[in-house]
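Hmm, how's this folded?
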Amino acid sequence: MANRGPAYGLTREVQNKIDKKYDPELEERLVEWIIAQCGPGVGQPEQGKTGIQNWLKDGCVLCELINSLYSSNKPIKSIKSSSMAFKQMEQISLFLKAAENYGVTKTDMFQTVDLYESKDLAAVQRTLMALGSLAVTKNDGCYKGDPNWFHKKAQENRRDFTDEQLSEGKNVIGLQMGTNKGASQAGMTGYGRPRQIINQP
């Protein structure tokens, strides 16, 4: 599974394109946040894609991360380090399920193989960014670290109008239709004499 040979041809081109999406600067910020959020017990990865992949691959750090975003009722009850591939992949799946329940959209989620087989580490970064943004937006006291590391997500701004206000709105001409302000026929005169066309002898 993880012992695949080198890719050739189109497969290699596709993989190169995916690899270019990976952001080394973002990697530093995410590592900083994970350590601030979970504590120094999660260790520190070696720099570079391989280092972060090996750090997150067994799913333990990810499970610690999602648990740290809850004050009580932690979503993942037991986190066990294992060298068995299926156990590691199971823990990554548990993290993904918990992240979805936390509010990360499916389009922002990576697939287990993206991390486990290092297929698309940029997708892993995307998921962690979405998770960080949600944690900052929720502002429930569980987020640790600099709030400026992530963008706040847009929140609903619901407005309730009365029936009277809604009916008033029907009488307003939207500015994209033009305006009728100042339009009047005051000062207009009748048409002038028609143009005279006279044949000169």
Q: What stands out?
A: Residues 18 and 120 are 6 Å apart (CA to CA). The chain is about 45% helix and 0% strand.
